[in-house]
Amino acid sequence: MVKAVFATETLALGINMPARTVVLEKLSKWNGEGHVAISPGEYTQLTGRAGRRGIDIEGNAVILWGNELDSTSVGGLASTRTYPLKSSFKPTYNMSINLISQFGSDKARTSLESSLAQFQADKAVVGLAKQIRKNESARDSLFIEAKCDKGDFIEYSQLRGQIKKLESDSKRSKRKRAEIDDEIASIRKRMKNHICHSCPDRENHSRFAERALRLQREIDGLTERINSRTNVIAKRFDRIKIILDKFGYIDNDQITKPGKMLAKIYGETDLLIAESIRADLFSNLSATDLVAVISSCIYESRNDEAAKIPRGEIQTALSGISKIYGRIHSAETDLNLEPMRAPDFGFCWASHKWASGNSLTSVLKGNDLTVGDFVRSMKQIIDLLRQLRVAAPHLQSVIDQALTKVDRGVIAYAGAAL
To answer: What would the CATH number be for the domain defined by 266-417?
Structure first.
């Protein structure tokens, strides 16, 4: 019988191995971008394996003490029994192509509007709309209080507001002080000539008007937040469509030949990979070089250290990938679309060494890679190679060689174990 099993936080969430006692070294996990606190649901999933059915009366969960450990937070994790489901769904280039191919643009857009992610975004809008109605009611009351028999006091108050803004901005503005002073003097003159300037109750009216205008600015800000959340999923789909059309993957809502190729590539960098295939960046690569190059499309470094890159054709291909990413990033930025993550060269050296036949010990020597991270990244490379085999048949021979070179040893064993 196995006395103890050690697993990384990522692996521990996926294995099903009941035990008498579960020990948590820390209450955080790697989410692909950084270490974040585990959720109550993940805590329950980890500690729920404590206690073997039919053997143990109860199971024990032990959390190692540390200086950064907050007992209140631990109690909250252990006592939470309801876990809100939050959708992280968002359309990708590949998904959009496949939806358009299956249903057409209109039906695909309607389907996305019915997603859980959109429902949750719309639900958040309800609270904002309620605050807007509350602010509008208060604003209207203040408008009544600011009403003046002599004329439009809101207009007069706006002039006062312009002066305050100019005086505040003058400290940071690059404009010449004389220009700002002249503009302020001009507005003061307009104020003195305004019909409301002679009102005996001018200061009271101004106070009410300024509060009303402040509420109006809050209303405008809340309205903008609502607009940014309303139909956010469908809007992302619309922007993705524009890029797909610009890059030649659709034409009048018809899937082009490149579009059919993109439909077979899944992942965060789907469009980058498809564009790299179209640019013929992979055709002149050896099997080992191909492994190193495509690793840039799946890997995410945990630090900012400069990547070590093998010389030769690999550097040429990676330079081409970087240029393609620049074009995609520019197109996304122009449309206010959340940009695709950049290619990461941090795994090129390790993956190239493994594909060249080096041992696991040799590959991991001198870097911060753990065995778990290495195996996970190599499995992702294998998955991408299999996708490329279908999407780019002209690369089949070199891909088959690459698969043979990387799917060996601990990598092959990990696949068999799964």
So the answer is: 1.10.3380.30
Query: Of 207-216, 303-312, 348-357, which has the strongest mean pLDDT?
Result: 348-357
Other beta carbons less than 10 A from residue 260's beta carbon = 13
What DSSP state is assigned to residue 394? G
CA distance 104 to 253: 7
CA 314 to CA 309: how far, in whole Å? Answer: 8
User: What is the spatial distance between Cα 209 and Cα 409, in angstroms, rounded to a whole number?
Assistant: 75
- Would the pTM of this model clear 0.85, i.e. be above it? no
Lowest mean pLDDT among 30-39, 283-292, 387-396: 30-39
Identity at 77, one-letter amino acid code: L
pLDDT, tens digit, 9 for 90 and up, residues 15-66: 666 778 888 877 777 666 667 777 777 777 777 777 777 787 888 888 887 7
Dig out the tokens for 380 from the structure.
């992702």
Q: How far is CA 209 from CA 132, 161, 225, in A?
A: 18, 10, 25
Residue 1 clears pLDDT 70, i.e. is over it: no
Q: Which helix (H) or strand (E) holds 88?
A: none
CB atoms within 10 A of CB 284: 12
Q: Where in the sequence of the chain do the CATH 1.10.3380.30 domains occur?
A: 266-417
**Dihedral class, residue 90 (left if φ above 0, else alpha if ψ from -120 to 50, else beta):** beta
Task: Give, rounded to a whole angstrom, the gap between the first and last alpha carbons of the chain.
Answer: 21
Which bin fits 104, alpha (ψ -120 to 50), beta or left (φ > 0)? left
Which of helix, strand or coil describes residue 211? helix
pLDDT at site 278:
97
